[in-house]
Amino acid sequence: MAGKLKNCPECGKLFADMGTRICRDCLEKEEELMVKVSSFVRDHPHSTIKDIVDGVEGVKERLVRRMIKEGRFQQDGMDITYPCEKCGKPIHRGRFCSKCDEALKKDVLKAQKNAVARAVQAVQEKRPMGTGFRSKSMSEKK
Ligand SMILES: [Zn+2]
Ligand SMILES: [Zn+2]
Q: How far apart are CA 49 and CA 83, in angstroms?
């Protein structure tokens, strides 16, 4: 079964994507790095992302962040944090701390409500409750 051909985002090489996102070479390299990062973190349980990037040769911050977001260190019982994308509070997973997450959810709800309100308004504006609407539409019918 052949995968879809695409360029590896890491090295730019063309490869058949079997759902691995990156090419085999890079995947192997990445897995090696992840093992290194995991053992580094085991030795330094309270590392920051910077400590890891500095301490593990060849590792990129992006990879460490992804590992954290995937909860890899949590499974190992590690206490690695990184800043919330909104307020900078140290968090363990996801993009935002629970507070910002709540606030964002509320924002989304509000936006949805506004969208609904706008849609209702638009419908009402299209159908004015005035005289003539009914008779006009009737007379337009052939
Ligand atoms: Zn590659
Ligand atoms: Zn936050």
A: 10
